[in-house]
Amino acid sequence: MxxxxxxxxxxxxxxHVGGARTALYxxxxxxxxxxxxxLRIEDTDLERNSQEAVDAILEGMQWLGLEWNEGPYFQxxxxxxxxxxxxxxxxxxxxxKCYASxxxxxxxxxxxxxxxxxxxxxxxxxxxxxVNEAAKEGDPCVIRFRNPKSGSVVFDDQIRGRIEISNxxxxxxxIRRTDGSxxxxxxxxxxxxxxxxxxxxxxxxxxxxxPRQINIxxxxxxxxxxxxxxxxxxxxxxxxLSKRHGAVSVMQYRDMGYLPVALNNYLVRLGWxxxxxxxxxxxxxxxxxxxxxxxxxxxxxxxxxxxxxxNHYIKTSEPEYVAEHLQWHLDQKGINKDNGxxxxxxxxxxxxxxxxxxxxxxxxxxxxxxxxxxxxxxxKKHLRGVAKEPLELALAKAEALTEWTTENLHQVIADVxxxxxxxxxxxxxxxxxxxxxxxxSPSVDAVMQLIGKERVVARIKMALAFIAEREANAQ
Length: 475
Ligand code: GLU
Known about the structure:
The strands form five sheets. Strands 1-2-3 form a three-stranded parallel sheet, with helices on one face. The chain has a three-stranded antiparallel sheet with strand order 4-5-8. The chain is 50% helix and 11% strand. A hairpin with a 3-residue loop joins strand 6 (152-157) and strand 7 (161-166). It is mainly α. The protein binds glutamic acid (GLU). Residues 8-10, 42, 188, 202, 206 line the site of glutamic acid. The site of glutamic acid (GLU) has 7 residues, from loops.
């Protein structure tokens, strides 16, 4: 049997990290079993759902690279099918019409509470029975599922182990409302059945729905899938992860400069482990993933670890991959990568110094954009009178180079030091400030090589003009 999993978000907002982790686990499990992954949008709550939220979910899934084999399906397009199944249960007397008004249900509930009984819908309550017997065809009614009265539902949760719930704890669930719309627990079952879902991996907030849903599968004569309920994600203070802990939307992580591989690696470890391994390539994740290695207990979000992973992936990923994701940030900052050296070469040189793509974009601007001022602190410290002679000599030697290579530029700096009998710092730092505009960069010879001769020459001249002006002002 082909394994088939699904991710079934309700489009009430953006794709948040909890949902993304559930999606990732479902996707990984399908991949690990050579199976298929379905995306289904559970959009029956017309008041809370929106097209923007659907778009945001699709965007988040695509950004994470969680491609679906089927879908997206939309529940709102399947009402005929749900109604067909409600009618089937009605015809088989596995569901029935209930005409009890809200007032009557409230009254029965109050009575149960007064008698210290568990408040629940009770089809055998004399008042409800009387209403249902007296009703005429066409009176407004809901359809209720006839939940078994005795016995219990047992299932073997792949994460939490054996779970048993007595049927006496469950009442007859409404499966179609008075307005004719089918309800959530019913739609999910029909969908999972129709879509051939073999494994339902979802948040533990759904665990109470599972026994009810299992009874519905059985009533429909549908095979019951295997279930796995994932524990919650907590913030670093131990409370349920929410907006006040910072970013919770997947796309916010894109905006903050994370690579999708880093977020996926982070999310997979947030509740799943393989020994003490922290870094997993996508292929390793797929090969090693298993449901029973998912933790039963909640996991706490740790931003430092995510940053560390992001740095790892910026450093070690193919520069083409980093470039693909850096592009969005370059666009945000108006940096045109065609106006300078090959972006992949710049990434190779600067990437390892950065924890995020936002930092990377900031740190590489000088390769692509000319500046009209030096960083004030760096200039104050390094573009002083003493730097004039070394910079002039470096300029002359650089201009004379016929081959603009890192080795030759390294030699230029070494020759300046030797000829003027000065230490490396006396030329290295002024040169760095001159060509990058600031005091921080990778090795200055490699930086100059990538920036290119024309720009380097112009920038050293600009630094010399700055020094001259500063000297003039000082007199
Ligand atoms: N639509 C549900 C939610 O967003 C998920 C239902 C399920 O996975 O069974 O929480």
